[in-house]
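Long-time lurker. I teach an intro course on protein structure, and each term I like to show students one example going from raw sequence to a predicted 3D structure in token notation. This year I'd like something fresh instead of my usual example. Would anyone be willing to generate the tokens for the chain below so I can use it in lecture? Attribution to the forum is fine with me.
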Amino acid sequence: MKDVVIYTVDYCPYCKKAEMLLKSLDIPFKKIDITQNEDEHRQKLGEYYGIQGRVTVPQIIIGGKRIGGFDVLEKFHNSGELEKLLEN
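-- Reply from a regular --
Happy to contribute to a lecture. Here you go:
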């Protein structure tokens, strides 16, 4: 299974939803809370992943590739594509 990383802030309901979905599917993930120095971390995420405009959270990374936020994660899960994304 590919590594899953999720960038979050502690007040974000979509971050919590993404974490709950991953936990409910028994998908291990590394959570990186960027609440401290949030603006700096958002800027670095944008630069690293080539995100135009304001960087939103959660940012979900699977196997080193950014897939986006909770809505995208949920879409992949509902379509059955999430399992394929996680395969090595």
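Some talking points for your students: The longest helix spans residues 13-24. The beta strands are 4-8, 30-33, 59-62, 65-68.
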